[in-house]
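A further point concerns the way the authors explain their paired sequence and structure data. An entry of this sort, consisting of the sequence and the corresponding backbone structure tokens, reads as follows:
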Amino acid sequence: MKSTKMIFSAIIAICCFCLVAVPQTLAVNDAFDPGKMADMSDFDPSNPVTPSGDTIKIAIVASFSGPAAFVGEIFYAPVLWAAHDINKRGGIMVDGKRKKVQVIRADHMSQVPQAKKITERMVLQEKVDVLWGTNGSHLMKVINQVAKKYKTIAQCTAALSDDLYDHKNFTRYSFMTSFQTDQIGRAAAYYYGQIRKKEKKFYILCQDYLFGHAMANGFKKGLKQYFPEAEIVGEDYHKLFLTDFAPYLTKIKASGAEVVYTGDWIPDAANLAKQARQMGMMLPFAHTFLDEPNFLHEVGIEGTKGLIQIGQYATTNPNFKNAGQIMVYRAWNNLWKNKWTKPFNTYTFKHGPGGGNIGSYMMQTYWLLSVIERAGSTDPEKIIKTWEGDTYQLLNGKVMTMRAVDHKAIQDLHAIEYVPPEEQKVNFNIEPYRWYDGCSGGGPVSRIPADKIMPLLDPELKR
């Protein structure tokens, strides 16, 4: 009997894979239309316009204080932008009423007990319709548990661990619109083994919790699949919010590594990169979140040259492909240059919808709002029905598909090589033809097809 169940589960998994292996071949259910974007000239994340009355409420559950407080602001600005745009268009028709979108900051302080407390407060007191989060897979697990308990929609936009959607943790109320750790690891391995074909010796250094180990496991699995001749010359895990990376960097220097693979996010990512360069270690990092431009400028052009990012919001070159995409980018960038104050006028927020993680968080939010609009309701059951199997095209043309069986997004990923400013024109193809002057940035881009990095599907998840 047990054997029969296992075979049946495997057949289901294969069928689900075949049905959605290459999302670009599927009809797109909806797409972001830049021609419909409202006049955003009054948008200011430091002075949000908060609608009153009966609204669609989205709680950003994230770190707005503590060592990772800046991450909350990185989430807040793009989500608020999407809400402001929709509100200026008149809102969304749901349940027979036209409602505007309200964004609420919910600070989990990077602590599990606080995450549970603030998330339950959002549901029970604020009566939010969506829980949007977060930095930290251990914290997203809490959000998903609360979402399941109170039958509230959760959107996983920035926590990447596959375990969040295995048979033990899956809840039909939560949707993973971010990329995932296993995808990222296999994408990096595919890039080095099937596209770049240069470096062969890798050192893994990740944060010592669920996400960090999952990032490492994905890479190791990918190397076996796509680059079996590669060698892992070292593997270490460090505590969160570490300030001294010297012991790890010393081991890396002695290992003979050619590339350091890391899943670190700020502030760890910044401290790791800065200390490596201060110690004279110029090895390239293969990364996902080693891209915060304020610290990249501190490291400088030479120190950031050769970084390889596995990006979730990118396309093949050139980056800007049509007038509508350029228009949306200019609307954001002009406000950044002329209106906003700290922290939103820093390098981190310069490019917004032009690319990078901020662009991804914005587009993931537009996908959520599109689903609510097409569901015609904030009823979780109607949202679930609409989102399962949905396809959505982002501003840059990338297509996202929501796999119905486990609520994971299927998508192409891209490997972005960081090059000096004078070489960035191949990617940043509008004036000033570079992302930044003071650090290296996106240049050559390689596509990793979705069918090479399909999201893990737990065979024990029976739906």
In short: The two ends are 18 Å apart (CA to CA). The domain at 182-311+414-452 is CATH 3.40.50.2300 (Rossmann fold).
